[in-house]
Amino acid sequence: MSRLSAFQRPVLCTEWLARHIGSDMADTLPFFKEKDVACYHWGLVQGKTQTWLPWPDIAHHPENTGLWFHDVLMADGRPYHEEEMALVQTLSKR
After folding, report:
1. Residue 29 pLDDT greater than 90, yes or no
2. CA distance 4 to 81
3. How many CA atoms lie within 13 A of 54 on its CB side?
4. How far apart are CA 52 and CA 58, in angstroms?
5. Is 39:23 a contact under the CB 8 Å cutoff?
6. E-assigned strands of 1-94?
């Protein structure tokens, strides 16, 4: 992060949520807020781009059954995880 901040330009991360490999909102979003990093979430609603499914090269483990890879909302608009949406609301407050 220090190498990027030396340029004194905005930092935007576009690839950050990958639950199957341990990258989740609980760890990542607080870090982004602390470091003033913007993030773009391109897989939002289940079914639009099939990004709730893990990439083919990620090993499937029984403990990850039912775990969504990237999306955060079900097709009907309900959150995949209520705790994640509560975190987003908390971190979005100024």
Report:
1. yes
2. 32
3. 17
4. 13
5. no
6. 12-13, 38-39
Rounded Cα–Cα distance for residues 54 and 64 (Å): 10
**C-alpha span between 46 and 76 (Å, rounded):** 9
Mean pLDDT of 40-62: 80
CA pair distance 4, 43, nearest whole angstrom: 25
| pTM of the shown model | 0.82
70 near 52, Cβ under 8 Å?
yes
pLDDT at res. 73: 93
| pLDDT above 90 for 79 | yes
For strand 12-13 and strand 38-39, is the pairing parallel, antiparallel, or unpaired? parallel
